[in-house]
Amino acid sequence: MFTTHHTPTTRSRRTVASVLAAVAVTSLSLVSLGAATHSSAAEPTILLYNAQGYGDKVAAAFNATNPGFKVVVYDDSTGPLFTKIQAEMAAGSPKWGIFWADGATEFAALDKKGYLVKNIIPTAAKYNAAGKSNVPTDGSFAPTGLTVTGALCYDTVAAKNITLPAKMSQLTTLPSGVLGMNDPSQSGPTFPLIAGVMAHLGGITASMHPTNAQILAAVNDGENFYLKLKKNGLQVHPTNGPTLGAMESNPATLDMATIQSSACYGDINAKPTPYWPTGAVKYLDYSVALPSNLGIDAKLSPALQKDAEKFVAYVLTTTGQHAMQHGDPYGDGLFWPVISGVQQESYLPSYSVTHAYAINPYVWGPLENTINTWFTNNIIN
Amino acid sequence: MSLPQSPRRLGQRPITRTFVTRSLRTLRPRVRLGSITVWVVLLLLIVIPVGGFLLVAVSPRLFNVGPQWFTLSTIRTTFTGYTRKGILDSLFVATLASLIAVTVATTLAWLVQRTNIWGRRVWSGAMWLLLLVPTWMTTLGWIDVIQPGELGTAVGIHTLFLYHHFFGPDGIVFVLSTAALPFSYFVISVAMRGLGSEFEDAARVHGASRWRTIRTVLPIIAPALLSAFAISFAESMSDFGVAFTLGSAAHFPIATYVLFNAIYSFPANFQVAAVIAAVLILSTIPPVYLQSRVMRGRSFAVLSGRSKGVRRHQFSTKMRVLVTIGVALVMFLVLGLPLLGAVASSFTNTASLVTPTGIHWTLAAYRQVFSTPPSFTPLGPPLLTSNELGLITATITAVLALVLAKRLASRTSGLAQRIMDSFLLGSVAVPGIVLGIGYIFFYDQRFITEHVIDLYETMPLLIMGLVASATPGQARLLTGPVAQLQSTMSEAARVHGASRFRTWRTTTMPLLSRAVVWAWLLTFTKTISELAIAQILYQPGHEPVSVDIETYLGTIFATIGSAATVLTLVEMLGVIVLVLGLYRLVTPGGWRRLGEARNA
User: Fold this and answer.
1) CA A17 to chain CA centroid, nearest Å
2) Residue closest to A51 by CA, chosen among A80, A90, A91, A9
């Protein structure tokens, strides 16, 4: 072991290899350290926690025309981002500056805890009627677009022998096993759907201040509705992707599902080739409005809060809305604009066709955990 | 180069009783300092962040996630209904998956290391490939095979029955077993390579039958078998990929899925998540206890510079063909099929592989990997980031794991070793998501960010998280080889006057170099495919490749995600080939030949 002899050639080969390895390690480490310190540049930055497909493009367009500070994007799904925000708030040193996601319930929860800057909506914002109906009274978050959840997406080939329902309540009488939906614990837009169904069954509108008894009755009705669906073979997949995948497989393992409209339109209208040519969307007697929203961290410095408000103002202009549409043309960009004068994508129907039913996020937000747990225990398992 | 004949020739003092006593006295503080350093590192990497998070279970007020300073109510509620079922399911599934993995791995390791079956390098390489593939990728690959309209349909197999079974306990056990298989295989393989033929020869010379010989020799690699079981169990308990992909659709709750739900619920239920995490960690104590019971007072040191090369068992030609086909079938089932499913999917751009108008093969997804649709990031920068992370994480982990393995393998220490052992295995069972949230809770504390250091959402903190995640498992993997080192070699070197470093360089390093290189490669590849920690701690603007790929999945661009996955796997394989090539170039032949089998 101690008497190893090396020829000069072997030794030089090893030396060269060792030097090469050391150079590789060192250079990559230096690149990494460079990256690690990249964010410590002099220009002020605001971190945008973004769950929207178009967030990066909108931030890039904004940064290009607004010098002096920079919006840096942190992409993820709504759930992980919301968890990070809660953990950061609990630790006491939040890094997020702006939060952009679908649904209003999580924003209402942040608002109730005092985490959001109030009155962030600029007076210049020209909301249309649909937009106005989703603006919170204290202006603590700003609706930036509308989609609906609870649209009936279906495969025309798989469902050709099935009479499509006209009402949400008729879903319980469909042939067994043909209907699907998402898991509210994993899919952001699904709790608003369940809450919307409950609110509709209980006759609770967005502007009402319901009593506990009214809410309890609505929740009860909703639970019975979903139990009937389960009895009728309801399939629950984690998120839009797997649910759509089950309908798009050949042959389909799922005929139809109540999910988010933009997800269906994205697959049906993908360019250059439609991804789901046999897919279609039908609106029942009601669907549930799902606004995308922007909120600003109340712990940002006053100067950065002002800068963040500039970003909100930008998104609520015609230019900002167009940047959203072009930023993710086959996904989240398929929304109904909330600003007057901005046209929706050509293959979206009129918003009125959706019969969108708005829920009060301050009423339903606090119930999300309880209802999702009930759903997991009683519908999924 | 030869050693001097006596210590005097190095100008050292003669070894006398007084000299030894003084030396020991001077060594003592150094040993303590070493222990303290190791524990400080572990405290900062694992104990404080994870411990802090676990404390939330009984003291939610501590981190402002609840009003109580002390409560046991969360623990009571966690052990009821759905959550309890998840925990029990996980214990059952992890035990079953670990038993299956260790049994199959032992058989495969013996066939590859100790018999003359064909394609031995291929099967070892296939195990590496299996190790590279994270469970979420395996699951998606299987869906690409058995979902109606996919690969199975393409070859005329009706897969609906299998598809429904896959989304249930059967699927979960199968995926976890295949994931644990390479861990067990490599631990047991290293042990079998280090086990010379002399033990078998001795048994056979004394008239033992083949079965008796196996029964005699197998206990010698008991540390490796138990280590394989323990690590498989811990990995299965903490697996995030299965929870992420099969969790809800399986209608069979497992603990990690329940934990995942608790953390991502609205509002996040950190208290319940903390209780489940504690259960996952505590569940690893029985395997460690079993291991320490079996190993107590025994020596398993068989690896030395004089270990003889092993002799391969020679199958007859007919048997050789049959066994080789059998191994090939197993490897095709656990690795080939899901990989084939993913690769086939990456060469199409349609909703399912088989469409009403046939299969439409295209390279579009591979083109779009680098020229992405508007809302996605091209593969290049994330892949570079992940390689940098892998390089740094693997290097730090290899050093730290070796230090810890040495402590674990020590036969002189008692309680401290057992604490370290339990702690490290418990750490293997810490899900990445818990580590990530624990890091936010601790390193994003206002006091720390304002007065000590602000590391949150920087590359160094992500690297720390990745090292914390990889080190316990790697330390456990290295414990087997380290435990087999005979201390007589280093003692001999020291007696002959070699310095500590020279002793290490000339005795320990040659014997462990192969295992350390494997550990490095394993950490490197696992870092690249790691998702849970990366998703929570990555630096804004510098997404690792796993986070980038995840954004494609579940969208109409899933085929681009498949193509990106395939390219990432190819790149990882390239790094493995490069590193092994460098190892071959740099190290003396004797290092590589150690433990190699020869044909009889």
Assistant:
1) 49
2) A80
For tokens 């614990």, the residue is A185
How far A371 CA sits from the closest chain B CA (Å)? 10
User: What gap in Å lies between CA B7 and CA B102, rounded to an integer?
Assistant: 47
**Contact status, residue B115 vs residue B312, Cβ threshold 8 Å:** yes
What would the pLDDT profile of B511-569 be if each residue is shown by its tens digit?
888 888 988 998 999 899 888 899 899 999 899 999 888 888 767 778 888 899 889 98
What's the token pair of residue A304? Answer: 């950065």
Q: Which residues pair with A71 in a beta bridge?
A: A46
Q: Please judge whether B148 and A89 are an interchain contact, meaning their C-beta atoms are less than 8 angstroms apart.
A: no
Q: What is the pLDDT of residue B86?
A: 86
Buried b (16+ CB within 10 A) or exposed e, B252-261: bbbbbbbbbb
Closest CA to B143 of B457, B353, B446, B283: B353
Cβ(A139)–Cβ(A121) below 8 Å: yes
Q: How confident is the model at residue A31 (pLDDT cuts 50, 70, 90)?
A: very low
A58 contacts: CB under 8 Å, gap ≥ 6: A52, A314, A315, A320, A323, A324, A327
Strand residue runs (E) in chain A: 45-50, 70-75, 98-102, 141-155, 179-182, 235-237, 256-260, 279-282, 287-296, 356-357
Nearest C-alpha of chain B: how many angstroms from A278? 11
Q: In this structure, are residues A179 and A258 in contact, taking their beta carbons and an 8 Å threshold? A: yes
Contact A372 B506 (CB under 8 A): no
CB contact under 8 A, B458 and A36: yes
- What residues contact residue B167 under an 8 Å CB cut-off, 6+ apart? B246, B249, B250, B251
Q: How do residues B447-494 score in pLDDT, each as one tens digit?
A: 899 889 999 989 999 999 999 999 988 887 788 778 777 777 777 888
Mind telling me how many Å the CA of B29 is from chain A's nearest CA? 30
Taking an 8 Å cut-off on Cβ atoms, the answer to whether A3 and B2 are in contact is: yes
CB contact under 8 A, B374 and A332: no
CA dihedral of residues B162, B163, B165, B171 (deg, nearest 10): 100
Closest chain A CA to residue B269: A369
3-class SS of residue A181: strand
Residues in CB range of A104: below 8 A, 6 or more apart: A134, A136, A141, A143, A192, A291, A293, A359, A361, A365
Best A46, A58, A185, A271 member to test B by mutation, with max B CBs in 10 Å, is A185
What is the least distance, in Å, from the CA of A285 to any CA of chain B? 28
Contact assignment for B261 to A376 by CB distance below 8 Å? yes
From B269, B354, B454, residue closest to A250, measured CB to CB:
B354
pLDDT digits (tens, 9 = 90+) for A232-272: 999 998 888 889 888 988 788 899 999 998 889 888 887 77
Write down the ipTM of this complex: 0.78
Return the amino acid letter for A345. E
Contact B375 A21 (CB under 8 A): no
Residues of chain B found within 8 Å of residue A186, distances taken between Cβ atoms: 248, 261, 264
Q: pLDDT class for B329, splitting at 50, 70, 90?
A: very high
Is A240 in Cβ contact with B375 (below 8 Å)? Answer: no
Is beta strand A356-357 parallel, antiparallel or unpaired with respect to A287-296? parallel
B227 is written with which tokens? 């280590």
Backbone angles phi, psi at B63, to 5 degrees: -120, 25
Reported as a single tens digit per residue, the pLDDT across A116-164 is: 999 999 999 999 999 998 999 999 999 999 999 999 999 999 999 999 9
Confidence of residue B245 (pLDDT cuts 50, 70, 90): confident
Nearest chain A Cα distance for residue B429, angstroms: 21
Across B372-388, average pLDDT: 85
Instruction: Please give the pLDDT value at position B103.
Output: 94
Tokens of B1: 């180069």
Residue B224, classed as helix, strand or coil, is helix
How large is the C-alpha radius of gyration of chain A?
25
